User: Which sequence fits this backbone?
């Protein structure tokens, strides 16, 4: 197989054959492409070098997973020292391999099977690049690239770690990489060549040709795979047999970073679904969405419990368990997506062999880590003592709620499989179940959040905290009453969502104000540690997302009709008029585009262009909704088929507060980033930067 | 227009649609409910929409008949509306479809038989977790703080270093 690949690899760009060069040129002119033939003599080998680099990285990973581990056990500094350069080299090799594959996509090298299957010469450049990870093999290469990136970062920023812990963390991280390198090389090699390179490719699934989706996978993977570092820290600590406040401080930034990326990734995916799939749904409880949501929930739990470890040296074994489970759920997610066990839009590779391979990886790492946990967890005795009413207890409640809601998602996602395997019934678990079973836990979480985050450490007085929150509570009740009376219909969802949102946002603001102390010295606000700002921002974001979801779900208006050209119609407060429908040509698609004028109170406020696209190469139609984005509502217009008796099917939606969902997500991510940049992590991370700001209010 | 299609072309188109339905179910451009399906009676139409949202398009992945533009979903939407116009109650309509397509058609599983596990697992786990949590918190409250929390030698050194830096 190897030799064959080498032979066929030179098919288009055989340096010894000048005719081959001419052929390339001719076919390229036909495609209207402008890459010559002089360069490929050198660059045609890039693919092979990329393949070779991947194999080398695999070998380096094996060394890195064994040598430092032995070194840490035997206390041999030389062996432990292997870890850092190995992690760097592993990352660089994988990075080169990824660049090589990207190069093949960018230059439309259709002698590569993967490029042929997922690209097309007429595709816009950005989607040629995003096509690298818009398929199974490429996305796994991205997965492992990010895995090695985190490994390398742990090596670079790990100066402050005890040498044995550092060696073990890097070794564990690398052992995960070994498994995934093997997976790629043995079941999903992206560098396979075609014997006869075709003139052009089969194009990328047009739905994936979208800016929102181009960057969805990288962010998601940064989050998913970022949790691997927390996993490595947990396993290393178990092997080490020592978890202390410092451990909590080391793990927390990684968790925060992973969670921030996961938040952005999920928000991007949800936003894409909202505008691309044509009816403005933002969350479908699809198995694959759930696969990314479960690690998100656990990462959220983990970044809260790690605070308790860091500040109070309690909840240690639980935090270790969470770190293992969070990455375990990332692996489950990868398994769900890649095996096609639960088929969905994302499962572009339904291959049982690959599924079994990932299942083995998952069982080995999660099972192994949990066994280690069972054997060692009892050693982590807690030190901190705290009262029943305390911040610690509140964070325990936070963790219970987040972990149980993750379990709801898990059992709902897996239940159809379980039912079919054990009870021989085929059934479905869809959005109605999740909405009903998941929401209560989020409501309770929202109710407790402001109070819990106001409680002081060790021993708190609930009454006092509530008194500080009283203005926020009164405001929230007023909001509840207002929406209750104003809204038409009697859905509980809307008013309750508004109440919770107001309660959380005002709670976070009051928490900040409260940090100023009795004197209300506002200048202190800017001297508060960034983690305080991060906490407030992220909580406000959570509240805003809640408001958005509740508002959209409770008060959406929909209109379906056959619209005649030139005949205005009324939807809610808006008057819409379809003025024309044109055929438009895009770079790699044909489009039927409507011109829709929107008026409010007789004044024109927007011209919208909903489209129906057809991608001839991929032979697939898509809808492009036109959306007039406003702060308080989106106006969402979709054009459908032309009717036999004239007119076009049009759907119009008024979507209240839709933007708040993603605005809230952005705030959550921003809050996480602020917290991440807090001085104590910069110091703890070992970067020798001098902190410029005056040490204002001490961190809690 | 269909008249000019050759049989082969139509078969190919059908096969394509079938493929799409399997590979990219929720991704097909959504034209779901068509204007000609909408009932004149708004109350009945609203009930039909609510019911449709809980019924799975059985040839799609995780998509309700309300969202799907598959032919079968359209047929089911029409069935739902026919039954409602005939005067069926919501339960009768759902039962009518379950009789024909099995419980697979329900997006919200029933609460009988084994499904009770699905519905009760999370609340049960919540209660257990709550119990364990309360036990843990109380035990922490009752514990005594270690008299002294000494820094290790390494930590002492590092602390001094940091103090010097700032």
Assistant:
């Amino acid at each position: 197989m190897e030799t064959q690949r080498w032979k066929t690899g030179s098919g288009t760009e055989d340096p010894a054959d000048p005719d081959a060069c001419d052929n390339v040129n001719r076919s390229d002119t036909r495609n209207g492409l402008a890459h010559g033939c002089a360069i490929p003599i050198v660059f045609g080998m890039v693919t092979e070098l990329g393949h070779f680099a991947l194999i080398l990285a695999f070998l380096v990973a094996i060394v890195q997973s064994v040598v430092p581990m032995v070194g840490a056990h035997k206390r041999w500094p030389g062996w432990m020292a292997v870890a850092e350069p190995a992690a760097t080299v592993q990352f660089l090799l994988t990075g080169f391999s990824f660049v090589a594959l990207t190069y093949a996509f960018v230059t439309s090298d259709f002698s590569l099977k993967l490029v042929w299957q997922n690209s097309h010469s007429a595709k816009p450049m950005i989607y040629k690049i995003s096509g690298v990870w818009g398929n199974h093999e490429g996305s796994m290469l991205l997965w492992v690239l990010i895995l090695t990136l985190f490994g390398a970062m742990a090596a670079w920023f790990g100066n402050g770690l005890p040498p044995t812990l550092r060696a073990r963390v890097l070794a564990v991280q690398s052992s995960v990489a070994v498994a995934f390198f093997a997976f790629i090389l043995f079941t999903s090699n992206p560098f396979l060549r075609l014997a006869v390179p075709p003139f052009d490719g089969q194009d990328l699934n047009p739905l994936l040709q979208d800016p929102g989706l181009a960057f969805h996978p990288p962010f998601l993977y940064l989050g998913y795979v970022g949790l691997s570092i927390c996993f490595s820290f947990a396993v290393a600590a178990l092997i080490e047999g020592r978890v202390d406040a410092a451990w909590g401080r080391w793990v927390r930034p990684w968790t925060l970073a992973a969670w921030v990326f996961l938040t952005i990734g999920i928000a991007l995916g949800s936003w894409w679904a909202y505008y691309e799939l044509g009816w403005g749904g933002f969350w479908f409880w699809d198995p694959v969405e759930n696969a990314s949501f479960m690690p998100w929930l656990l990462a959220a739990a983990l970044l809260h419990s790690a605070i308790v470890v860091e500040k109070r040296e309690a909840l240690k074994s639980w935090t270790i368990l969470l770190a293992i489970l969070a990455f375990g759920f990332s692996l489950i997610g990868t398994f769900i997506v890649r095996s096609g066990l639960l088929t969905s839009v994302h499962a572009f590779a339904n291959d049982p062999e690959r599924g079994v391979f990932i299942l083995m990886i998952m069982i080995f790492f999660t099972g192994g880590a949990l066994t280690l946990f069972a054997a060692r967890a009892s050693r982590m005795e807690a030190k901190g003592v705290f009262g029943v009413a305390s911040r610690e207890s509140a964070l325990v409640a936070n963790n219970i709620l987040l972990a149980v809601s993750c379990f709801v998602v898990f059992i709902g996602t897996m239940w159809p499989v379980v039912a079919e395997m054990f009870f021989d019934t085929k059934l479905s678990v869809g959005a109605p179940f999740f909405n009903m079973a998941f929401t209560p836990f989020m409501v309770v979480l929202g109710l407790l959040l402001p109070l819990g985050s106001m409680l002081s450490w060790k021993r708190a007085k609930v009454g006092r905290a509530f008194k500080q929150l009283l203005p926020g509570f009164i405001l929230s009740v007023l909001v509840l009453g207002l929406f209750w009376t104003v809204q038409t219909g009697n859905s509980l969802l809307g008013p309750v969502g508004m109440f919770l949102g107001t309660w959380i946002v005002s709670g976070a603001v009051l928490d900040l104000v409260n940090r100023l102390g009795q004197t209300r010295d506002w200048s202190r606000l800017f001297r508060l540690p960034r983690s305080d700002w991060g906490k407030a921002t992220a909580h406000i974001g959570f509240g805003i997302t809640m408001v958005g979801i509740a508002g959209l779900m409770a008060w959406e208006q929909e209109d379906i009709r056959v619209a005649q050209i030139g005949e205005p119609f009324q939807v809610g407060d808006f008057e819409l008029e379809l003025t024309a429908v044109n055929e438009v040509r895009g770079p790699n698609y044909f489009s039927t585009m409507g011109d829709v004028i929107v008026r409010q109170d007789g004044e024109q406020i927007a011209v919208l262009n909903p489209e129906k696209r057809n991608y001839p190469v991929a032979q697939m139609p898509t809808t492009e909704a036109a959306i007039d984005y406003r702060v308080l509502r989106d106006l969402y217009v979709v054009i459908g088929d032309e009717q036999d008796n004239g007119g076009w099917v049009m759907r119009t939606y008024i979507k209240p507060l839709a933007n708040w969902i993603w605005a809230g997500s952005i705030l959550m991510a921003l809050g996480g980033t602020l917290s991440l940049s807090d001085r104590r992590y910069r110091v703890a991370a070992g970067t020798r930067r001098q902190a410029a700001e005056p040490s204002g209010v001490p961190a809690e | 227009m269909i008249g000019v299609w050759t049989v082969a072309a139509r078969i190919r188109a059908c096969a394509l649609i079938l493929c799409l339905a399997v590979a990219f179910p929720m991704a097909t451009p959504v034209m779901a409910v068509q204007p000609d399906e909408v009932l004149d009676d708004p109350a009945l139409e609203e009930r039909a929409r609510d019911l449709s949202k809980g019924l799975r398009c059985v040839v799609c992945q995780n998509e309700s008949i309300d969202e799907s533009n598959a032919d079968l979903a359209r047929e089911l939407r029409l069935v739902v509306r026919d039954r409602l116009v005939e005067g069926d109650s919501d339960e009768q309509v759902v039962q009518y479809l379950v009789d024909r397509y099995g419980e697979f058609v329900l997006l919200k599983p029933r609460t009988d038989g084994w499904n009770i596990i699905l519905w009760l697992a999370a609340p049960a786990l919540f209660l257990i977790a709550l119990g364990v949590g309360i036990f843990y918190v109380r035990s922490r409250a009752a514990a005594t703080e270690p008299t002294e929390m000494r820094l290790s030698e390494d930590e002492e050194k590092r602390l001094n270093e940091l103090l010097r830096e700032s």
Summary: Chain A is about 60% helix and 10% strand.
